[in-house]
User: Fold these one by one.
Assistant:
Number 1:
Amino acid sequence: MTTLFRVTGHRLFTQQQDDSKKIKFAYILNPDRSIRWFWNANSKKPVFLKFYNAATPKAKLYKFLIHLIFALRLNKVFFKSKVIYYRKEENPLFDMESDWAIFTGTIGPNNKALLYANRSFYKIAKTDSAKNLIAAEHKILSKVISESKLEVPKALMLNENIIQLSDISNDGIRENSFTQVHAGAVMAISAHHTRQTKISEWSYFQKLKTQFSEIEDERIPTNIIRKIKAILIHIDERENISLAFSHGDFTSWNCYVKNDKLAVYDWELSSAEKPKAFDFFHFIIQNGILIQKKSWKEIFAEIEEKNKMTFQFSEEELLKYLKFYLLTNTLSYLKIYSVQEEWHLQIHWLLKTWNEALNTILKACSTERELLILDIFDALYHTDYAALKFHNEEPEKLKLNSDIDMIISSENARKLVSYLSEHSLVKKVSIVRKSFMQTVRILTMRNEILNLDLINQLKWKHMQIMEVSKILENRRKNRFGVYNVSDKDTARFIDLFYSLNQSEIPAKYQKLVTEHLKSQKITDRKLTTKTLKKKTYNKGLNYYKNIFNYLKDSFTEKGFIITFSGVDGAGKSTVISEVSELIEKRYRRPVKVLRHRPSLLPILSVWTKGKEKAHDDVVNSLPRQGNNKDLLSSFLRFGYYYTDYIFGQFIIYIKYVMRGKIVLYDRYYFDFIADAKRSNLQLPKTVAESGYHLLIKPKFNFFLYAAPEKILSRKQELSYDSICRLTREYSLLFSRLEKQSQNSKYLSIENNNLDNTLETIMNTII
């Protein structure tokens, strides 16, 4: 502060000096407790609001309250102050006893203070880099002329440290939205100078690339660097690019709307070397991140909308110039941030959104799942977490059937889920919360699946087996910026997990466990269990708490029922097998496959033939060969099977569905309605269909069909006419049930191509 006032023609003292005068400074602090604004405490006007961007409802309310405080002369009550002594030097810039205010500026190599006094703004450079910027601004403002759409301040260079700018903010308002007035100003600014050049001859861009290759800063998340490199590699240097004059920091806080004109400050970053539409993108993106706290999804939607009122780019052009805006802006600021000693919170906001924005360009060469994995680890880069049993290759190369297990606190897990819920690549986030972890299932916009297990306690059944805090202390960062659980802690976890479950350690982990545990490997399971029970976190009240949570966790996530119907030869068995594997390995849910009915009661022939003989007869006989034509016998047989459904459905629900399993029925009750003869029944359809109303409805029901010729080529168990008739019966039934149902899905699928069938089924389930 002393240096700052010296260049304005004043000397400050903390103690009374000869010829010095006393003055009281009032001030407002930044969140980090550093001074943001300070002013003459005797001032009757809140002059410091000249620096405040009162564009949001919350900001407007704050501005109103400040004015009210000053109007009621309560400013000395609400604002802290400090007594300072000062002495005038030769030609002071302003009168300390008058109305004035100072904004200390944003921390960084380009830091400048901003003084408002004498109805003018004064930029006061604090660093050599800042001196160069104000000199550049003075030079630019001598060339940019106010016109019908644009107003610029008059500039006067007082010395190498200070530039004076006229106040053009009067009668203007700051506006967060990109309006038609902003659009007119952007077009007017860019019209000052435009040209085309090959990318290879674009010196500004080539310089940024060189500077980027020299950056070495551990604070910058690894994967944003990798993304930028991937984009740069794919750029065709022979391609032409349109460059245009730009303001360089065209933001809501630098602009005042004055009727149909825009008054614009801060021209120090203006240049004729930036890509076309730089200011357009910059206003919407910076405002979205720093002021409106929008997600990239929302920001990009605004870019697409506001493009219609400005450059009217085609979709291809919009992505092209967005790409070069993101590259030039990000490369420029990464260089600045790499030499900035302390990072403020806004830097993390900017990096996170820029990182996600780069996906808009990379979607052409990477899957959404891959990009999402990169973003997850970058979003957690400055967070305490450790991936468990995660590979040491590029993180995005995670196998499709693998998920990410992560040791992380509940609070940080909550923040990650919130981030993912707003991510532009995410269609849906499903969360299952247990006492010791959260299972997060992510569905991307292209229906790709990623599963996360966010673990806050490592447990086996009701017992905690390791301390998370110690695991996080021992974590290790790999060359891709991923923090992993240390090899020794991983080995200990694997040994405990498989030993307590009385399972063999998989071959891929045996070397790791042997190397890091050696003689400490578990040899006595009972002794290990006894030792764990003596740990503080498993004793006393913790014991009862763990038991309660274990029982509660067992019923945290409900499963659901899926049925598959169709004539023999329609491909049900193959589809069920594939769907079962997909659900278990990719959707990470346990599966139980049942045939036709709950089977609480055995098949009828068991009572006369015995279990083994009855089973052999069913396996060896063809379907629909029963000769029962008696109505009473059919009613009795149906009553027996219906009893199995009525009571068995509750057993299935409690045993499997309530415990989170997905139940797959190979055939279901619909056979009694559409193909009663298969169960040796001769009944009116209305009887069986009426009985369906009392059953718990499966969530998803799929009827698989194919052309009779295709079915006969697979299985010659039914006649051509039978296949046609049964297909029609099932189709009509499913169509009827779909219209009647609100909570269940009934879908008919022509099963000609297995991949297409599986995609339809999985997309429906997901």
Number 2:
Amino acid sequence: MRSTAAGTAEAPVHDPQHQSFAWPFTAPLYVGSALNPINSSIIATAMVPIAAELNVSIGATAVLVSSLYLASAVSQPTAGKLAEVLGPRRVFLSGIVLVLLGGLVGGFGQNLATLTVARVLIGIGTSAAFPCAMVMIRRRAQDSGLDAPPGGVLGGLAIAGMATAAIGPPIGGLLVGAAGWRWAFYINLPVTLIALFMALRRLPEDPPLDRADSTFRTIADRIDLPGIIGFAATTTALVVFLMGLPQPTWAALVVLVVAAVPTVWWELRANRPFFDLRGLAANGALTRTYLRQALTLLGTYTVMYGMTQWMQAAHGYSTVQAGLLLLPMGAVSALLSRPLARRNLVRGPLITAALTMLLGSAGIMLLTSHSPAIAIVLVSLIFGVASAATTVGNQTALYVATPPDQIGTAAGLFRTFGYLGTIASSVIGSIVFHDGASDGGLHSLGLVLVAAGVVVLFLTVLDRRLMARAADCETDASDHTPTPLRTQRRIPRKEKRMTTPAVPTIAPERTALLAMDFQNGIVQSVAEPDALIERVKGAIAGIRAVGGTIAHVRVAFAEDDWNSIPATNKTFSGVGAAKMMHHEDESTQFDARIAPEDGDIIVRKVRFGAVSTTDLHELLRERGIETLVLSGISTSGVVLSTLMDVADRDYQVYVLTDGVADHDPEVDRVLIEKVFPSRAHLIDTARLAELLKAA
């Protein structure tokens, strides 16, 4: 994401980061984000005493785990979508209140049904914190003109996330052992009150909702309510089916299919889908991030749950002892998460996570009921490293790979995939420990985790895009100045960024977006073309939705065009001589994903610029167009030439900085940073959406 902040970046990059992400802003986000992982894991040490007091089987108490998993898996992306539409602070505060209510209901509950309701409330409420935090962090980074992810802040979220999940069993062991199982619920009361107080005082107010935007119908349309319902039904059926294994619940499988088919059909056709299947397919980096997170958490939670059961059943440790033996795992995760995140590392931590997962899994296969406590601690320490590395690497990869306006939903899905990993760990544990938590079952768990670790390793080392961007995912250790993470270009270290002045408003009826040279033979020549197309596609949809104009420009030649190119034209004389890019060739046709529609302007050019050899200027003036938004391939070709021309014709010009690309990333950088700001306003697709909404 390129910078869109007002003013010029005269101060070092780390200064605005320090000022924008001071402790009063980040503290409530950290506390809120810690609630879900702690509640996910703390119940592990309370299930046996709950079963004893309520006179139910230990197996029956598994619903307390699965209910929170299910509620969280559905609610995380839903909360993220609501945060994007209604405002992150509103959704964050609502979630905190639900957690407080769930703590009270569970603490005073007298039967398993009441406790299940409490866990569902806690699951829904805690699900709001992480996606809302990511939305607020991303927006504040944009407002501060920060290009690089705020690594220190993401490190804090990592500690509040998986690192705190690792200390859930020790905390639970101490609380349950000292004060009883009800404190597995009561622990939420003081924490939520603190988070609520800090959030009300310190988190920035959301913009007021317009009356027209706050109606149920409008909100339902903007959040894609049918998509959310379909996703919830599909996810619920999937979780129920998985949790029923090894005795499959066939009715859940039928519901899964019945819910999934129409949901997929709807989401592929929705203008603003909740679960953007096309975008996910195009954004391979994000898809791989989700898969890595799910598989690595499969290992981490297997240690937290599977080894806890094995230590108590096969090794004879008490609840408190089992929790304390896993305490170093959480400590290592917490100690490593923040320093790794501050450097914005991605590839290194992900490879480390895969290797340590393999090493720890092999260690599990060597443990027996006669192994000393130090051996168990060493295995847990290895998984502590894996937990920190995977959380940091994948969280930073998520921040970079996600368009700014979709970060809430993407962050929620990130957690959902993580929960699928934890659910899988529970299912696998129930299968291998079906006849009791034995050494043989533990070794089977280790074997499964070795296989998962191999897959994670392949998802990392064979990811060519991740390998290519490795250098862009680091910062200068000498001055700790963040280096922007790029999907298409790299900023040299210590370089000061230039940004454009405050961006004026847009009048949609007098605005046209130019989609230039997005044709079959050109699109694949730049880095990450699918993600670029999806961003431009979204910008086109936004302009259309408010009544703006779309103009499609392509470069292609007829016989007469070839013959009329003089030898003095250094670039195009070669095109004419070789009879290249005929206007009927498939390579010169528009990319089908952003093909023209009825009412769009379509022009064919025979030089770099979109105006010089076409009647585009006249067509725009006939429609009263005064403002142009430029997107295209390449930055040094059609975008540069068109910008110079239309600026001289006195159009108000915007350049979509994440809607252009060049074959040479360095040329792209220089033009965006050094040349374009004097002639155009620089915005990204997220900022365009904000301008259109405000129009």
Number 3:
Amino acid sequence: MASEEELFASVDALLEEEPQLPSPAERARLREAAGITQARLAVALKTSTQSIKNWENGRSEPKEPRLSAYQRLLKGWAAKHPAHSALSTPTPGAVPITVPQPEPAPKAFTGPAAPEARTAAPVKAPAAPVVPEPAARPAARPVTSSRRPAAKKAAMPAADPRFPHGPLAVLDGDGSAYGVDGVVLDCPATTIPDLVEWTLRESGLGAAKLHRYGKDSDPLIVLTAAAAVKFGLPERLEGHEQRRSLRLSEDHPVVKQVLKARWQLTQRGFGPWARIYRKAQGRERQCVQLAILSWDALDERSWPGVAEMTPADIARVLGVYAQRVITPRGSTAVSGLELMTALRPPTRAVRDEATGNWVPGHNPGSLGTDPMDPAPPEATPEHPVVVQSGWTGGFLNEEAYQWVRPVDTLSDEECLLPYAVGLDLNTAFLAAASRLVVGLSAPDHFHTPTFNPKIPGSWLVDLSHVELDPRLPSPFTPDGTRPTGPAWYQTHTVAYAQELGYNVQPIEAYLRRETGAYLDPWHDRLKTAYVDTLADLGVTRDLDDRAFLAAMEQHKQVDPALAAVLTAIKATVKGGVGKLRERPQGRHYRDGERWPALERPTWRPDIRAAVISKARVNMHRKLLNMSRMTGLFPLAVLSDCVVYPSPGASPLDFLPYAASGKPQPGGFRLGPTPGLAKLEGVQEMSWAVDLMEQGLNPARHIKGGDAVLDEGE
């Protein structure tokens, strides 16, 4: 007979299930039968027409609260317009249900059959994470200590009743804990263990999970310098190691205090981002994230000016980020990676047919729970796969552009133009992640396979025969030089050579049989966060190009707090992609040893390569189309920034427009959406030529940064 705990687990699993919808085709049929257009339905559900299209072709699914509203509408239509077939006629008042299936693997490989997959034995189901409900909440009081008048506030969703005070708080030295929406709590804690207990039992802080199979976000407490000193922590964390590697020594009084109270620290120890936890007891999850401002927890590059804001304003910045992206758990790179897992949890509850119990099972479309070694050409030179096998066959070199056009290819007409104008693609790597099919299983090795652009993987191909205009960078190398022989390329790079009309004959390949658009929900959430935050700063989709350029000139001054959120969102994209191939850290590392990042299922250099390959190919396609439409060729490219010679100081002076005044598709277009362009900067043409003659990249100086994706903490 089933135990009470097993029955409760089964019931909880049913309660957590989201409303089921009919198949995408049935959704479209019901809408058409009701005589409603996609645009009209989008207005009714307060979403975009593209979202309706995606729901009806199976590319995405609605989320709450639209999910329940959409289901209610479909039920009503199903009752009025039943299908003619007896098999598809729904029960009165019900909507036909289809169980979503995993995406099928691409068609036939030319190599040998795949080795048999090993089936992992089911493991004991972990208890569902639940934040304990405190007996009493501390009274909240309004904020009264901000140096800046309140600006337009980003809209926040209705509070989760389990977490009435939001996802986080910024704690000052006087015991005031500043939360989102102007809430201030009184925190009586005088030690770090007391602070952890107060946060879990009384604060009402936390955030609901982003996916039904995921976990709630642990509460975040940000300590000001005064609060850190109050709890016995040093105001600054100094040492010879890199800032992100610094931590308190194991014999520090605060560390001893934490351990004596039977709390634990993660392997990162007590550093700028410290996680303090106890192993879950039953269904109760006990974990608190701390961030110490004076230890540089909020990096100035990702969070410009935030560490110097008042506690109330810091809470506002981090609160908007938590609501739109995720509650921070470390650097923006760490948060970018955590967001991938939060939106694609590795496991879901499945029923064990032998026992009837609910146990953790693989969640289709996720990366699973176990780390996966890359193919040798996808690894880094110090990786054990390379060192232990003695691999000498070369590596993928899928990196962002760092190219300067040879000066001798400049014409007199170009040199006489007065301006060099820099265009920057909005979150180019995020745009590349959209609908990106990546491998979900281990790589298999093939010899002389037939190239298939639908199969993600790494291909050894000779592309040195591809002839392109020398005034454009090669699409196959980061420095834009022409390949000199066989090299390893990601699928998108090889597919682009085929798109250009050239024959490709792979010599070898490492390919993956199980595939899926793993990054789609990550892309969708970050895109929405980026576009919504820009809109709050006055840069909306309905602006024409002139108004867009004017709005972009002023957007950082509209609201510095939201401008910092925008920067953090962009850093989350780049950092998250970069961290898919985090390199070893520390002075004591030796080649061939495993490093901690390799134990994550999200250590996937092949996925990083796929994103960068697609972004670089997208950039080259625009460059090529621009040369065909306008006769203009770039001076330099750095990652997502391209510099063009121009007769005027505005992109409007050289971008391609139709006679009607509308931008022509295919080339660069202005706008706030990821993948579209904005003005990055303007310089004199003579200045750009001088840099090029010195072998320097004008795009680097205009952009004020580089193309390296952050691979650290």
